[in-house]
Amino acid sequence: EYMGTTAIVMSALSRVIHDVIEYTRERKTFGQPIINNQYVHFRLAELQTEVELLRSGLYRCVAFHQKDRDITKLASMIKLKAGRLCREVTDACLQYYGGMGYSKELHISRVFRDLRLISIGAGSDEVMLQIISKYMGILPDITKRK
Fold first, then answer.
1. Catalytic residue among 1, 26, 88, 126, which?
2. What pLDDT, in 10s, does the model give residues 70-118?
3. What are the b/e assignments for 42-54, b being 16+ CB within 10 Å?
4. What is the number of H-type helices and E-type strands within the chain?
5. Is 1 marked active-site?
6. What's the whole-model pTM score?
7. Are the C-beta atoms of residues 50 and 57 closer than 8 Å to each other?
8. What is the pLDDT of residues 114-133, one digit of tens each?
């Protein structure tokens, strides 16, 4: 389930980044396309890098699964990263649309709202962190408390 969720997220995030690149090429401020601003194109490059790193994590998880290895920790890590990346990418990309980004006509508005569920549904970020902590051997054993 976590791997499927991550695959869907990568596709959605890639579209969001593609759409904002097209928008910032067309939209001009101070006589220049927004994309010409160094901060904007550097930030979009960073976001795309994060999506590609998530893809690498997913491929690694799939490879482990095909070899019948325990993927619980890695699957939890990519699910956690996917949820957090959804918030980061959609928030950053929505910013480039300004107030227009909230209009129902734009895809970014819906994705900004809908992808927030990734960090809540099918195991919240906190649950993922608990699983990862357990597999790292650092989750306190609350049954031994006095």
1. 1
2. 999 999 999 999 999 999 999 999 999 998 888 888 999 999 999 999 9
3. ebbeebbebbeeb
4. 5, 2
5. yes
6. 0.90
7. no
8. 999 999 988 899 999 999 99
List Cβ<8 Å contacts ≥24 apart for 27-34.
Answer: 27/96, 34/96
Tokens of 87: 């918030």
Using CA atoms, how far residue 83 sits from 37, 45, 46, 87, 104, in Å, is 28, 19, 17, 7, 22
10 within 8 A of 55, measured Cβ to Cβ: yes
Do 79 and 6 form a contact (C-beta atoms < 8 A)?
A: yes
What residues contact residue 64 under an 8 Å CB cut-off, 6+ apart? 70, 71, 74
**Nearest-CA neighbor of 6 among 76, 102, 95, 108?**
76
| Eight-class DSSP state of 28 | E
Rounded Cα–Cα distance for residues 35 and 42 (Å): 9
What six digits make up the tokens of 108? 């970014």
Task: Quickly tell me which residue has 């549904």 as its tokens.
Answer: 121
Chain position carrying tokens 């929505």: 94
Please state the three-class secondary structure of 77-91 as a single string. HHHHHHHHHHHHHHH
